[in-house]
Amino acid sequence: MKVEIIEMGPRDGLQNEKTPIPVEAKLAFIERLVAAGLREIEATSFVSPKWVPQLGDAAELWPLLPEGPLFSALVPNRKGLERALELGVKRIALFTAVSDAFTQKNINMTVAESLVEFGEVASLFREAVPGGFIRGYVSTAFQCPFSGRVEPERVLPVVESLLKIGVDEISIGDTVGMASPTEVRRLDQMLRSIMDKKMLAWHFHDTRGTALANVVAALEGGSTRFDASAAGLGGCPYAPGAAGNLSTEDLVYFCLREGIDTGVDLGLLAEASVPILQALGRAPISKAQQAVLAEAARSGHS
Amino acid sequence: MKVEIIEMGPRDGLQNEKTPIPVEAKLAFIERLVAAGLREIEATSFVSPKWVPQLGDAAELWPLLPEGPLFSALVPNRKGLERALELGVKRIALFTAVSDAFTQKNINMTVAESLVEFGEVASLFREAVPGGFIRGYVSTAFQCPFSGRVEPERVLPVVESLLKIGVDEISIGDTVGMASPTEVRRLDQMLRSIMDKKMLAWHFHDTRGTALANVVAALEGGSTRFDASAAGLGGCPYAPGAAGNLSTEDLVYFCLREGIDTGVDLGLLAEASVPILQALGRAPISKAQQAVLAEAARSGHS
Asked: Rounded to an integer, what distance in angstroms lies between the CA atom of residue B279 and that of residue B274?
């Protein structure tokens, strides 16, 4: 059995961090993630630097990325797409949500309006990049920080719209990290009735400690693609209370113990985010990362 | 559905902490846990103060405990039992493990020798306290920090010995926090073939982030009793690499979201360990606790 990890650290992990990180440090972080074996990495976002100053260097970073892995970039709108296309970006991630309250606060549109924008950006990208890859994020699929719990029935029409637009993958997001396994299982079953499960990825946040249990629920349903962030960095600037993606180290440790192949070296991964954590002034925050670093320190390997 | 939590914070949570905590602070911690709704609490250990100085005040603490909840104490040997009996302790926890390497380092006995000691202490307790309650810990049920992975087949004879001795409950311990759900499920199925599942409790550590996923696996098998520690405090002084019990807050949040009754108020629980964390010089460490405290701070309730 195999699990594919879509690494979020450089984008979702950093976007909400206030300490400015120089482009060289981001590149070094990405190179260390690649050396640890990660093969799909969301490297940055072509969002306006006014909104997310941390990722204002996207155009500088992109041409420096190494050959080999699959790099994607978040593209929030047409302007972002133009910037991405100038740089030859072949994999983009577009963004919508289930809750109007969330998209209103976030991008000043209803969900329906955001789907129109999404469709237009997607078709401009398809024209410009034949064979390109579009990932669609569906945020607040379990809970909206402004309007409360989201029932799975409300997720389906949004996913159907993305399927109609013709995305290559849909990543279902527990943006504020409140989901628990039973609701993941329910939504997963519903989604599998309307889409090919190979197109389905899950994006869990670990704000309340449930992310890995949610991964297990989705795995049991046959999903094998999971977003995660090295060191558990990240959160959503628009979602009060959200703090920390599922940590890639916890996911990789779990897979190792379960005998599931990820292609990732846990020791190298645990070390990969250490310099950027130092730059951010943070101690290691993923549990598996802390355990691995402590073991390495004891045995004198680090 | 109902989950019963056996709170480990005052004993397993504190035993490995170097900063001495005065008995008044421990009592206040316990009173706050009781106010949050916890009904079974392992309050202390009658271990030698030479081994675990932090719990050297057991005889001072015990008479101060409030009426109402079920308090237990860990009893490591006959000498500890004598001290416990003098104080009228009615619920004791005794200790063994699956791995000889672990018991040798820990209590200088093989597992077989520790079972003989266990049986003798148990029968002295039964004579002295008719109707008393004995919980048996089976440590290193998945992994020994000294001798590696533990197959579930090796756990069964230890559990059978405890059943023969006549304990009231058996708590299966992932002492170093390395287990993952598939092995929990396997062991759970084997255990249910030899014992009443009502006698079974699980003691997970969250060292690598897998504890809550393991709870879900055991719950699905029909278990409803789980050990947890407020703030995720704790670890095992004899198990290098072990750091942190499953946090009670993460467990209670999960149960709330799943609609499972625990009788615990998550807001009060999140606050309950704040003074002791301050005394220990630690920031809140449980993810759900951090999220709840952050929410409370934002809404001005704290």
From this structure: 9
Q: Among partner residues A241, A244, A254, which is closest to B210 by beta-carbon distance?
A: A254
The Cα A135–Cα A42 span in angstroms is 11
The distance of B19 to chain A (nearest Cα, Å) reads 21
Which residues, other chains included, contact B285 with Cβ-Cβ below 8 Å and sequence gap of 6+? B231, B232, B233, B244, B247, B277
Closest CA relative to residue B57, chosen from B32, B31, B25: B25
Judging contacts by C-beta atoms under 8 Å, the chain A residues touching residue B287 are: 206-209, 244
Of B27, B200, B236, B255, which residue is the catalytic one?
Answer: B236
| CA-to-CA separations, A20 to A24, A57, A230, A232, in angstroms, rounded | 12, 10, 18, 18
**What's the CA gap between A209 and A204, in Å, rounded?**
10
Q: Where are the beta strands (DSSP E) in A35-90?
A: 40-45, 70-74
List the single residue in B216, B243, B244 with the smallest CB-CB distance to A213: B216
CATH number of A4-298: 3.20.20.70
Chain centroid to Cα A26, Å, comes to 16
Q: Are B147 and B104 a contacting pair, CB within 8 Å?
A: no
- Tens-of-pLDDT digits for all 302 residues of chain B? 999 999 999 999 999 898 999 999 999 999 999 999 999 999 999 999 998 999 999 999 999 999 999 999 999 999 999 999 999 999 999 999 999 999 999 889 999 999 999 999 999 999 999 999 999 999 999 999 999 999 999 999 999 999 999 999 999 999 999 999 999 999 999 999 999 999 999 999 999 999 999 999 999 999 999 999 999 999 655 444 446 899 999 999 999 999 999 999 999 999 999 999 999 998 888 999 999 998 888 776 54
- Contact in structure between B184 and B149 (CB atoms under 8 Å): no
Residue B138 vs residues A11, A293, B94, B162, B195: alpha-carbon distances, Å: 44, 28, 9, 9, 14
